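Field notebook, page 326. I keep forgetting to write these up properly, so this time I am using the form the group agreed on. The chain and the ligand, NAP, are recorded exactly as supplied. Prediction of the bound pose follows.
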Amino acid sequence: MTESLAGKRICVTGGAGFLGRRVCAELGKCGADDPFVPRSSEFDLTQPGDVVRVFEQARPDVIIHLAAEVGGIGANRASPGRFFYANMAMGLNLIEEARRRGVEKFVQVGTVCAYPEDCEVPFREESLWDGFPEETNAPYGVAKRALGVMLAGYKQQYGLNGVCLLPVNLYGPGDSFDPKTSHVIPALIRKFCDAVDAAARSEAGSTSVTLWGSGEVSREFLYVDDAAKAIVLATAMLDDPQPINLGTGCEITIADLAAQVARICGYTGEIVWDATQPSGQPRRRLDTSKAASLLSWRAETDFEIGLRTTIEWWRSQRRQMSGVVS
Ligand SMILES: NC(=O)c1ccc[n+]([C@@H]2O[C@H](COP(=O)([O-])OP(=O)(O)OC[C@H]3O[C@@H](n4cnc5c(N)ncnc54)[C@H](OP(=O)(O)O)[C@@H]3O)[C@@H](O)[C@H]2O)c1
């Protein structure tokens, strides 16, 4: 189903990021030429002139736009203005230049954060505009939502083929484990691994790990390789910017997630919830039936296996960083 990408010149913005590396690997499997990946050190996509240079160098048939400034609740709260500006500006510049140059297709990767705070569960694509997103991620979510509208307008007025995908929270090897920008799964893994290591080093006995919020909110998680497969399928098969959810359709509370991650990490100490810190949106679960019917795609990775793979990857990274050969 991805044969149509063979021989295409594809530009993957953000192609060196967590999701981008997996998308480029997936493109390689379907015979597409090596994608052009504009690195931020050379091309600042918030700047129109840099975007023009990307098109001049890449001469793309297709753009898969993944570049973004992203992070968990802490990062969103620290930089709401920057997150709105950077994500809006990158998309605006790229979509407009794609139209001017007549590219065949523009694939916009949005986010579950675009959904209204009180959206009926499971979130259906038709509910995207039923309310305002949860405040901690609203600037990021609204910028991504607006770019979906821009694509719809560009299809209607200029005939630009667009694709608009809405993935849930992603996880997997290669994710950011930087406490300033990490999402919930890497943040939990890092805290529990640190606690296990600290306990092993000391005779102190009992340990505790403090986590943000109440633990009562729920989230849905998609393994990064499953997301990459869906994005490449959608790039090959779709040309209409109607929003399409990408997820597993499975919901887990943060408290249950924390318990599962702690168990796999081997952490047996206390978990303390700091309810003075924000929890974010109350519930998140997607209706994934549209992706199933349009792309014949379903997420394949078992959650326990995906978590174990991610934890093992992080442990190997830490061993490398500390110079320990295992
Ligand atoms: N991670 C998730 O849970 C999740 C969930 C839903 C949707 N998404 C969406 O998926 C996409 C990829 O996310 P990710 O988690 O892979 O993010 P990531 O690892 O932070 O990668 C983002 C990439 O964007 C590039 N970038 C940032 N600012 C740029 C600029 N001004 N000019 C050029 N490039 C810039 C960076 O390129 P350099 O490496 O060259 O600096 C970076 O590699 C984003 O659109 C995000 O909104 C992610």
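OBSERVATIONS:
- The chain has ten helices and eleven strands.
- The chain has a mean pLDDT of 95.
FOLLOW-UP: compare against the apo run.
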